[in-house]
Amino acid sequence: MGAALRAGPPGGRRRLAALISRYGEAIEADLTFRGIDFGTLWRERRWRLLLNLIDHLPTATHFMEAVAMDEELARAREATAAARAGRRRTHRISEWTPEVAVGADIHDLLVLLLAATTGKDGPRLPFYPRPQTAAGQLEAARRQAMHEQTVRRLLPHA
Q1: Using CA atoms, how far apart are residues 20 and 13, in angstroms rounded to an integer?
Q2: Which of 72, 121, 125, 155 is the most interior residue, by most CB within 10 Å?
Q3: Residues 72, 1 contacting (CB under 8 angstroms)
C-alpha cells in the first residue's frame, strides 16, 4: 500500500484509485472547500488533474490528516525508516510560509539561548531545517568535497 501512495509522475491511475479508495471522503472535502467539483473531474476522467490537485494540497488539510492517522501506512513507513535514518527532514519550498520561517527563526534562537545558558555539557539541539534548492545542494556538495580534500591533505594516513 505504501508504494501506491508514494508521489510519482502525474497520470498514475493506479495511485489515484488507491488514494480515492482510501481517502476519498477527505480528498473530496478538501477540493470542495477550494471550490473544485471532485465529482465533475471524476466523471470527466480528468485523472491527471485530480492527481496533481491531490499532490499539491497543503499540509493543513483533511487529506493530510487522514494520511497522518493511517495506521497501516504508518507501519509501512516504519518498515522503511531504517533506510532513511541518516537523512535530515527539510521543508518543501511551497510549504515554507512566512509563519514557518518566523517559527524556524524563533526555534533557532531558543537553541542558541539554551546552548549559551546550559553550557557545553548539555545535548545540542539541531537548528530547524530549511528548504533545500538545487543550487544549495550543489554548494553543499562542493563544500563537502573541499572538506574531504583538506582532510586528505592534512591527514594522509587517515
Answers
A1: 10
A2: 125
A3: yes
pLDDT of residue 121: 66
Answer yes or no: are the C-beta atoms of 91 and 131 closer than 8 Å. yes
Q: Which residue has the cell 582532510?
A: 151
Reported pTM: 0.54
Q: How is the chain split among helix, strand and coil, in percent rounded to 5?
A: 65, 0, 35
Angle between helices 13-33 and 47-55 (to 10 degrees): 60
**What distance in Å separates the CA atoms of residue 1 and residue 18, rounded to the nearest whole number?**
8
Q: What is the pLDDT of residues 60-100, one digit of tens each?
A: 999 999 998 998 888 888 777 655 555 556 778 888 889 99
Place of cell 488533474: 49
The CA distance from 63 to 27, in Å, is 5
